Amino acid sequence: MKGKREKQETSDDLRTNRGGSLGLSIPFDLYPDILKRLPVKALARFLCVSKESESIIRNKDFMRSYLIKSSARSQTQSLIFTCVDKSNHKKRHFFSVGVSGESSSSVATYHMNCLSNPYTVVAPSVHGLICYGTLPRKVSMVYNPSTRRSITLPKIDSRRFDIMYHYMGYDPINDDYKVLCMTRLGHGLGQELRVLTLGNGNSWRVIQDYPPHYSPRSHLDICIDGVLYYEAFQRGHQVMSFDVRSEEFDLLELPETAARFTKMTRYEGKLALMTFKPAGLSCTCWIDLWVLVDAAKQEWCKKVFALELCITDYYLQAYCLTDAGEFVFGPDTLSEPPFYVLYYDPKRNSLRKVYIEGITERWGKSIFSIFPGQVENLMFL
Q1: pLDDT (tens digit, 0 to 9) for every residue of the chain, 381 residues total?
Q2: Which of 39, 295, 374, 377 is the most exposed place for a label (fewest CB within 10 A)?
Q3: From CA 201, how far away is CA 278, in angstroms rounded?
Q4: Residues 6+ positions from 174 with CB-CB distance below 8 Å
Q5: What is the 3 state secondary structure string of 262-280?
Q6: DSSP code of 26?
Q7: What single string gives the DSSP state of each residue in 333-358?
Q8: What span, in angstroms and rounded, lies between the C-alpha atoms of 35 and 52?
């Protein structure tokens, strides 16, 4: 009876003044603004309150404005961790961590695990959604950490393939998510590219016109302002850009010194290729960034950062940059607690340590990836 009473009270409080309903009187045009202030978990419950609230929450314009508002929040810098299972190297565990302000500790939220082919690794979070490949069916999944729901993408109708790469991009103009998939029969034995737009029962479409290239096993990618960038190989290591809206490709020429980059990240809103040189006995680590300052002219700018680490921290790796411009350092192996990450702000030349509870060697033997920018997304409610 208690649960029924609480649901009835919630329903009464949120009814509008149309029809003379009892309870709090709220003008209907203020309804969306109020709902935008609520977290995704609360909105999922409000789907059952009334047909009016459900129609608002499931409206595409509301979902888009909610995502924009969530992306604009700067108080919390969320991270997504992917760990390799300690007993099965094909198994991945997913965690998310929200670090608020100058907090020195946080608690990780465990999401799920999956069996992943070495060639179908996890793509970075794209406006709150994560794309990953699974075994043994060789299919791709899209997962929403906010709602903890996932969808299975249509299986590719093709001849047998041994390698499958997938990349996800977002078109902010049309509010479309697209998955780019590359399948290949071994090394250099022919490949096919397909694209799929999420939603409305869409199917894979074969891409006929694109520059010859293939993806190395390291599989690096990032989507920035409607353009998907991913590591490609054609006469050496290069970067392929894919305009999510027009579905056009462009092969970017790299500076010679940037050919051995190890990470793709975002620096001041632009694509950046990162190379990390770990700290040795001197406890000084170096980070080289090549920033794409002009995509049309393919103009790059190199930036070098030096960071002094203490003897207990010199084994850390640089994984990514947050939207606030801080480098995120973390271990490549999991050991006894406490587990922590370091945030380095190059502008202030400041370093802060954040302890994270809930990620231990119980779940995995190593960190596979860390990427930032997780935002609340209403898709798949």
Answers
A1: 444 444 444 444 444 444 333 334 667 778 888 888 888 888 888 888 888 888 889 888 888 888 888 776 644 568 888 888 878 877 888 888 887 666 788 888 888 888 775 555 566 789 889 888 776 667 788 999 888 888 989 888 766 667 778 899 999 999 899 999 888 766 555 778 999 999 877 899 999 889 888 777 667 899 999 999 999 888 778 899 999 999 999 999 898 888 788 899 999 999 999 999 887 667 788 899 999 999 889 999 999 998 888 767 767 888 889 888 899 998 888 776 778 899 999 988 888 899 988 877 666 678 878 888 678 888 887
A2: 39
A3: 47
A4: 245
A5: CEEEEECCEEEEEEEECCC
A6: B
A7: B--SSPEEEEEEETTTTEEEEEEEES
A8: 12
Give, in degrees to the nearest 5, the angle at Cα 77 between 71 and 82: 105
Nearest alpha-carbon partner for 188 in 168, 212, 218, 220: 212
Pairwise CA distance, residues 267 & 318, whole Å: 14
Distance CA 33, CA 296 (A): 39
Write out the H or E segment, with its range, that includes residue 99.
Answer: strand 91-100
Q: Smallest Cα–Cα separation from 113: which of 139, 142, 84, 152?
A: 84
| Amino acid in the structure at residue 61 | D
Residue 367, both tokens: 């960190």
By residue count, the chain amounts to 381
Strands 263-267 and 249-252: unpaired
- The letter for the amino acid at 283 is C
Token pair 């411009």 in the structure block, residue: 325
